[in-house]
Design brief:
The chain has 194 residues and is mainly α. 75% of the residues lie in helices and 3% in strands. The chain has seven helices and two strands.
Amino acid sequence: MPPGIPLPTSQQRVSHDLGLIALSFALYWGTYELNELLDPYTTYAQGVNLLFLPAGIKLVTILVAGWRGALGCGLALLWMAGTRFWAGLPLPMLAGYATLSVTTSYLTIALLLRRRHLGPVLEGLTFWDIVSIDAINTVLHGITINLYWWWFDQRNSEALLSSSLAMALGDFLGTGVIMLLVLLVAQLLLPARR
């Protein structure tokens, strides 16, 4: 930290962390609400959409806020799974699902960022880094989550591969839409560099 800038207090750090968790929760939840409008056109199977915008929010919040983004998205996913698309399943099963979903993404993103030697402010992150991180993350996430549901007899063996690939595609496309929106907002809000 540069000289002359006071270190944040533990209360300020906790407030900052809680704010990022709440923001991640709200963004994931809000994007899920928006995505539900597309469900009649994009639903492939139980819990699988061919365009899933919250996947993009999860990627962005983990990239920007780290574990706080993962926790906020995980809590939102747990709440929505229990009240919407997996309603009626036991809470421990839903908690395992939400934890596995965000942990898979968090670890994949963290490992790929470390492999690229990107710093904490993501200096040097390129468009192709984001595309490759998203592609690897969505494939691993799709396989992991569908294996989880197969293990608990919520997905049959015949549909395992197709559901995994459909989930990966939906997450990849949803992230693409969110990243385009982020770029558009950044261009509108940030002054052009000369």
